[in-house]
Amino acid sequence: MNGAARTSPTPPAVRSVAAALHTIDGRIAAGGVALAAAAAVAPFLPSYPLTLLTQAVIVAVLAMSLDVLLGYTGLPSLGHAAYFGIAAYTVGILATEHQVGLAGCLGSALFLATATAALFGFLAIRATGTYFLMITLALGMVVWGLAFRWVSMTKGDNGIAGVPRPELGLPWSLSAPLPFFYFALVAATLAWAAMGVLVRSPFGLGLKGIRESESRMRALGYSVWLHKYLAFVISGFFAGFAGVLWAYYNGFVGPVDVQLVTSVETLLMVALGGPGTLAGPALGAALIVFLKNFVSVYTKRWLLILGAVYIGVILWAPRGVLGAFSRDAR
Amino acid sequence: MGRRGFKTLTVLAPVPVGDYALELRGVSKAFGGLRAVDGVELAVRPGERRALIGPNGAGKTTLFNLISGELPVSAGTIALFGRDVTRAAAHRRAALGLARTFQITNLFPSLTVLENCLLAVQALTPLKLAMHRPLARYVGLRARAGAALEAVGLGDRAGATVKRLSHGEQRQLEIALALAGSPRLLLLDEPTAGLSPGESKTMAELIKRLDPAITVLLIEHDMDIALEIVQHVTVLHYGRVIADGTREEVRTSPLVREIYLGA
Amino acid sequence: MSAEFWITQAFNGISYGALLFLLASGLSLIFGVMRIVNMAHGSYFMLGGYVGLSVVWRTGSFAAALLTGALALALVGVGMERFFLRRLPGQTLGQALMTIGFALIFQDLALLIWGGDPYSLPVPPMLQGVLTAGALRFPVYRIFIVVVALVIGAALWLILDRTRVGAMLRAAVDDREMAQGVGIHVPRISFAVFAVGAALAALGGVIGAGFLGVYPGADFEVLPYAFVVVIVGGLGSLPGAMVGSLLVGLLDNFGKALFPELSYFTLFAPMALILALKPTGLFGRA
After folding, report:
1. Span B180-198, average pLDDT
2. Domain B98-182 class, CATH top level
3. How many angstroms separate the CA atoms of A92 and A77, rounded?
4. Which of A238, A316, B121, C247 is the most exposed place for a label (fewest CB within 10 A)?
């Protein structure tokens, strides 16, 4: 909360930007600038950076969805890839085997992802802290197990290939990278806006209250269970939204999209970027996407580096890059 | 232990069942082998100002936790304004008009003073589940929150983060949160805990100025402050009620003096 | 489905459960005393298998493999606790996340050192072979696993129940602050518990490598099993770990045999049921 309060000789410009990022309006402004910049720069980017940017934008939605649960409500989920993956698989299966269009895929995928979150939430919400961590991990693995073993449905390890880009009836085909980038950018902006309104609403404030003191919330008259459950389901909904975008972007859906490492990476994005800010995790997502791709050019040791970054962040920057709120001992 | 024959200093005028703001019958709480609260009978009338005193470890805060629903009872019944709430969850009791403060400050540390108050103000309204509009648009809520802050003297600290408040200001906020929901029964757990004598005086004045319609049950370690605020006193010792009467009677009771000096 | 099928599957389930017990008991005790959920516990299992593998390749001795694996991972566990986890006292979430970081590092290191191929630990001749009873065939190695688990279970039980150290441990699980208050040196106990827990997991890994093999990804594959065992059995409870591992072993085996495509589901259903009825597990406390 106080990068700007230290007496180190950081230039005033940096300090005032940092201070601005601690406010909601500051972050919205910064986010707006970033989105506009991305939109402006995109036509001039070579294809590889453009695909990375597209990835970053989509994964940012996933990270933000987890932030709603982790950063705002204080519930650490290690199974978030489940809703992402279920939505992606739904799109994959419907689009490739049944030639379902965008509307049908989107609707079904969101429905299934949200329904899964509703079911899992029911089981997980009664737990807290590390117990919650374990249960969500186990539930996430269940989905992975289904993806891996229910071969008749998911094609197992082979995954589902050849997912076509959606037809929007626009003059530009989404099969080309640039139009698809704009499509993803618009979708991600909508998701960001929706989540932004959510966390600024009375309900959103309630989530923050739960994060800070559940007992006080109960004493004030809140049904803490209900709030947590709703946060869980909504978070799953937006994770599913990211999954839909991913399936279309990647053209391929496989068990790797629901594996534990994916959930772990998502958690790191939130922790690295700064939980409880939405913009932070989006930034964290971009950082991780670029880092992962950059690292894989030089070495295969991505997991090693990821693990080391994890430990480093936890030890030395637990509030992440944006450092908007501090979660101390629980 | 075994304090049989506790002395009731005053027989409260018999009132028909259901006319009490708070009624505890045979309430006990056991933690394993330890009886923190043992067979407590308590009846507080609407509008009454009652102090709950007793040495450390007498079970006062545990009793509050039982009344507010933070802990389930091991035995006995609790009724709030005539309704049985023994099995009711804490948030249900709040909806019936119960509010409390905590002995160890229990606020929302990284939120602002205003946000703390807004949480209290929206808690018992359907607005708390509104997800589609920013909180800033709900002008009515902000007004009520602002008023609650003014009432406890924190009006000018609305934008401050709670972590940064002084202890005294945090205790004031505790009260503001409890009052924000317009409660009918207020449980105050050591409101002057950790306050300087001057701040304690201010706190006492604040409590005395509360709407006389609100029933107040006060845990207070400082006997002088307690007896200044209330008319009736219940004395707890080892989880049991051992005295119950007006403040004069309790002030002059040799039994109570023995407990405090001997304990 | 013939009687042979049921008996064979039950036996397989019990032996798998025995293996899980080695893994889960350590996890449960570590949590009970230190309130840390060790996400690297599966890594201890996998690394134990790899270390055991290398030892057998070098020396041909299964016993040496068991010993070395257990010791090596005990050291790793102690190192993790002492130099990293201890830096975040009381922050259970931060600690859990740190162990994730370690799990990732361990997975990659294992890939680096032992490569991507799956291996099977050569089983000593004494433990090879099959006991037959009519049409039933019981591999000796699986019997061995059950025996090891029973011995270790009994040893843990005796230590917890009969010794002073065990009493201190139970006190620390019950109420950490109170235990420290009466003079029990909880950090030193934690240290020991972590070492023993890691050693048990590694032991399970060496033994498991003999019939499940050891391969990249075994760590994250086995971790949810361990979690389901402790979730179902209750964190910090030894009887819980015993019952839980038996249950999970049986359910998993029958699930895989009867519904191969929905095998994780058979784990999921009872876990879900238990969570719905008793969120802290069969033998757990809040």
Report:
1. 90
2. alpha beta
3. 25
4. A316
Write the pLDDT tens digit of every residue in A191-206.
Answer: 999 999 999 999 999 9
- CA distance linking residue A4 with residue A23, whole number of Å: 13
Q: Do A301 and C272 lie within an 8 Å CB cutoff?
A: no
Mean pLDDT of C107-111: 93
What are the tokens at C281?
A: 């597990």
Strands (E), B1-68: 22-31, 34-44, 49-53
Q: Give how far Cα A55 sits from Cα of A236, B115, C237, Å.
A: 19, 36, 44
Give CA–CA dist B205/C271, Å, rounded.
Answer: 55
- The reply to whether B64 touches chain A by the CB within 8 Å rule is no
Chains A & C: contacts with CB separation below 8 Å:
138
For chain A, the structural domain boundaries read 47-316
User: What are the tens digits of pLDDT across the range B193-248?
Assistant: 888 888 888 888 888 888 889 999 999 877 788 888 888 988 888 888 888 888 88
- Which DSSP category does A103 fall into? H
Q: How many helices (H) and strands (E) does chain C have?
A: 11, 2
Give the fold, CATH level 3, of A47-316.
ABC transporter involved in vitamin B12 uptake, BtuC (1.10.3470)
> In chain A, which among 124-143 make CB contacts under 8 A with chain C?
124, 126-127, 129-131, 133-135, 137-139, 141-142
Q: pLDDT above 90 covers what percent of chain B?
A: 47
For residue B138, which of A68, A213, A203, A22 has the smallest C-alpha distance? A203
Write down the pLDDT at residue A9: 58
Low-confidence ranges of chain A (pLDDT < 70): 1-11, 14-15, 18, 321-330
Q: How many angstroms separate the CA of residue B101 from the nearest CA in chain A?
A: 9
Q: How many CA atoms lie within 13 A of B67 on its CB side?
A: 34
User: C21 pLDDT exceeds 60?
Assistant: yes
Q: Average pLDDT, whole number, for chain C? A: 86
- Of residues C84, C112, C231, nearest to A134 (C-beta): C231
- Measured CA to CA, the distance from residue C102 to residue C42 in angstroms comes to 11
Pairing mode, if any, of strands B34-44 and B49-53? unpaired
Segment (H or E) for B80? strand B75-80
Single out the residue of C95, C279, C284 nearest to residue C194, CA to CA: C95
pLDDT surpasses 60 at B3: no
Write the single-letter amino acid at A310: Y
Residues 6+ apart with CB under 8 A from A255: A144, A147, A148, A154, A156, A157, A159
**Option in B120, B124, B130 nearest A203 (CB):** B130
Prediction ipTM score:
0.88
pLDDT at position A323 is 56
Ranges for all domains in chain B classified under CATH 3.40.50.300: 18-96+184-192+212-263, 98-182
Cα–Cα dist A143/A255, whole Å:
9
The amino acid that residue C19 corresponds to is L
Fold of B18-96+184-192+212-263: Rossmann fold (3.40.50)
Q: Residue A322's pLDDT is what?
A: 60
- The pLDDT score that the predictor gives to residue C1 is 63
- Report CA Rg, chain B: 19
Those of residues 7-26 in A touching chain C at CB distance below 8 A are none
